Amino acid sequence: MTRDEITALIGARGAEAEELRREADEIRRRGVGDVVHVRGIIEFSNYCRCHCAYCGLRHDNAGLERYRLEPPEIVDTAGFIASLGFGTVVLQSGEDMWWTAQRLAGVISDIKAATGMAVTLSVGERDAADYRLWRDAGADRYLLRHETADPELYARMHPQASLENRVRCLENLMELGYQVGTGCIVGLPGQSAESLAEDLLFMQRLNIHMGGPGPLIPHPDTPLGSEPAGAVETVLNMMALVRLLRAPT
Length: 249
Ligand code: SF4
Prior knowledge:
Bound molecules: iron/sulfur cluster
Distance between the termini: 12 Å
CATH topology of the domain at 37-141: TIM Barrel
């Protein structure tokens, strides 16, 4: 599929959109069948050093009550999740530097020893050495959305961060053998269909294992608080295109 074809399909509506999603759903059915995998997720800290313009957890949001679970609380909660029959636990937080690589590695290895569950991490950008330590401790998967592959838009949405470093993190994770999930936000101010097409091609180029487009949901205490939400129709087309572009040929 060419870049122009992808760009046109992102804006599809009516019968054209239905056909696009039907094709994608067939790929989904062939690939994974009619099952839903349910994960247990522990949001263990909402402290964050970053300034992402769309996120209510951003460092600059002084009105937010912050919390942080202690390591034993996380391991106990993971044990509870395992006792309910879940096969995967997701450990998610803001970019909270109280959590040194060593501290989180201890939690990962304790959860693995106690439950044997797959461990997915979603804790943001870190050095390759940190990712390696966590992989060695038993982490299986990593979620790190790229948010937008458009460098100019990325810079506007992420003061003090760079798309270059985001990509480097994703490449490091892939090299270390994690199953990697990424994804983009649909509906950022100034975002074009061409920019969204680049998000899809970026995920294809990186050969990531999971791609999750999602809508902008404006948070009132952020700079994007008065922006309109991302269009659900566009998100559904993006999800369909992720499946079509990732389908085995
Ligand atoms: S790094 Fe994550 S938690 Fe922190 S501000 Fe950005 S999106 Fe929010």
